[in-house]
Write a structure and sequence with these properties.
By secondary structure, the protein is of the alpha+beta class. The chain has helices spanning 45-48, 68-78; strands spanning 5-11, 15-20, 25-30, 52-54, 57-60, 64-65, 80-83. The strands form 2 sheets. Strands 1-2-3-7 form a 4-stranded mixed β-sheet.
Length: 84
């Protein structure tokens, strides 16, 4: 099991900075082409700004979340996770 997300910061242009319990940190960058289906709600800037941590995962209202294990592995390997 990967470490929990313990801190996030909203960045411009559909991006987040995340930090994990073990100190690993990096950027999550969303491309609009990824924001379909349940993620389409994140195109609304007010909705995107509502990102928060719930049970160690980055979460938004409406049961939208990012898989913390995939997020951790991508950031650990590349310093960022780009969702296209």
């Amino acid at each position: 099991m990967e470490p929990d997300v313990v801190d996030i910061k909203i960045l411009p242009a559909l991006a987040l900075w995340v930090q994990f319990a073990d100190g690993t940190s990096g950027k999550v960058q969303f491309h609009t082409s990824h924001l379909t289906g349940i993620f389409e709600a994140l195109l609304d800037p007010d909705m995107f700004q509502q990102a928060h941590i719930e049970s160690g995962a980055v979460t938004w209202p409406g049961q939208i979340d990012l898989a913390p294990d995939t997020l951790y592995q991508a950031i650990k390997a590349h310093g960022e996770w780009v969702l296209r």
